[in-house]
Amino acid sequence: MKPLYSVAQIRAVEQLVAATLEPGALMQRAGQAAANGVLALLAGQANRSVLLLAGPGNNGGDALEAAANLAGAGAGIDVAVIYLAGSALASAETAQALGRAHDAQVRFLDALPDSAPALVVDGLFGIGLARALDGAARVMVEALNALGWPVLALDVPSGLDADTGAIVGPDGVALRAGRTLAFIGNKIGLHTFEGRDVAGEVEVASLAIDAHYFPPASAELNQAALFANQLKPRANNSHKGSFGDVAIVGGARGMAGAAMLTARAALYSGAGRVLVAALDPGPAFDSVQPEIMFRDGATYPLGVGTLVMGPGMGGSALAMDMLARALPGAAALVLDADALNLIGASVDLQKRLGARTAPTILTPHPLEAARLLGISSLEVQRDRLAAARAIANRFNAIVVLKGSGSVIAAPGGAAVINTSGNPGLASAGTGDVLAGICGSLLAQGWPAREAALGAVWIHGTAADRLVSQGIGPIGLCASELPQAVRAVLNELVYGTAKNG
Ligand SMILES: NC(=O)C1=CN([C@@H]2O[C@H](COP(=O)(O)OP(=O)(O)OC[C@H]3O[C@@H](n4cnc5c(N)ncnc54)[C@H](OP(=O)(O)O)[C@@H]3O)[C@@H](O)[C@H]2O)[C@@H](O)CC1
Ligand SMILES: Nc1ncnc2c1ncn2[C@@H]1O[C@H](COP(=O)(O)OP(=O)(O)O)[C@@H](O)[C@H]1O
Ligand SMILES: [K+]
């Protein structure tokens, strides 16, 4: 498991452990871990200067401890500190760390130096950040963001909400770090919304705290281990019926492409047979992918198999009627795009959705999630975990809240945050592909939660693979994903993929 903790949980662990140790011991461990991290990053570099920013609280204390350690490390490092003391008295631990930094002959500066240090260490604010950055801290963060000097954030990049991944506002700023060294445990907000961009690569320094001090994690990071029990090699004696039927219900006039992308994704991720139940007579076949069959949506039986409803479905009376018929049925459902918008606008459809007993996956992007919850997309983004959980609980379904750091939530269960994927996916049609993978895995017998976890991980990993081959992120097309999805899935099942 790759656990994620809330700030409240980390605080509780900190209190329990601190009571068993000498005062300041945890801060000293954090400072030592930070210094070790800096030394590792400086290995082999000619530039040996490090600038540490220390804020008024204990995050600042960590930076001061790290500065003292680096100055005393005998590694030829030029250590400079900018200490932005607050109006209130520093904690005893931070005051002690300040004394150690002075004793170690660390240079204290009043302003940013003229030339770039090898590394900036951000100890301005950690989990105690209570409001948007202002005054000197804000000026410094804006200047550093403009300069683009490499930054190692201690615990949390200053300005970021460690619970939600939002930049603390209103009108807030956060220091963009290339790396973050999280203390005690990994934090939710480092991995979703703005968090991935602001925190960069995240490493955890547990400060030698024993596992028994930790509560059950409030979330975890997605990894192949979470769905590995479904990755089964195929029997020789199998046939197309062994791997399920997926019908894509969509493709209203002018939007056939969305349904085609979903169908191709379902095919390339292993469904036995893939059909498009089209809302518009449109094309009779897909000339690129002739394996896909086409049916008239109006008469298609909606009560069996696996249906992916929504891609290019539109908001017509027929679309509404098909949803009303499918929701009470026994078909496993993936509901995406227009299906979600229709449900968001209809109390009757919402009731039918909530009453379902067959497997159901909802794949909203933030605006679709907002419509389902009757709030704004900004509110969804401000707490993505809470939004995904609320939809899962309200509609008794597995939910994938899409976007950077997609959140997968199950009713009453812990949420999972996905780490694969990149901005190459930020183009029209990639969500249709995701819905197709979800439907395909459901049709192959995966339980809904594993299907969602697997689909999101594979979809993101496929995009990462394409980018590593020079295909994107700029200009990566949704139609390029299915073949990469096939490669990733086969490697997972037949053993050569990294189970990251
Ligand atoms: N305790 C321990 O054992 C350990 C703690 N650890 C470390 O401590 C960190 C948490 O420390 P923390 O609680 O002191 O909070 P921190 O993030 O330093 O900021 C709070 C300070 O900032 C102030 N302030 C807040 N917002 C502000 C703003 N916008 N603009 C200006 N000021 C603002 C606030 O004062 P306020 O003005 O709100 O009264 C307060 O002075 C944690 O992330 C980890 O790095 C590790 O060493 C492990 C052991
Ligand atoms: N910056 C990003 N990083 C990672 N994944 C992303 C990013 N932007 C978009 N995605 C993913 O791409 C897909 C986009 O889906 P969606 O918004 O529904 O697009 P569409 O409806 O046009 O297909 C989702 O799976 C989403 O998580
Ligand atoms: K910080």
UniProtKB/TrEMBL annotation:
Binding site for AMP: 402-406, 431
Residues binding K(+): 59, 122, 158
The enzyme's E.C. designation: 4.2.1.136, 5.1.99.6
Domain of life according to the entry: Bacteria
Keyword terms of this UniProt record: ATP-binding, Isomerase, Lyase, Metal-binding, Multifunctional enzyme, NAD, NADP, Nucleotide-binding, Potassium
Reaction(s) the record says it catalyses: (6S)-NADPHX + ADP = AMP + phosphate + NADPH + H(+); (6R)-NADPHX = (6S)-NADPHX; (6R)-NADHX = (6S)-NADHX; (6S)-NADHX + ADP = AMP + phosphate + NADH + H(+)
Protein name: Bifunctional NAD(P)H-hydrate repair enzyme
Species name: Massilia psychrophila
The encoding gene: nnrE
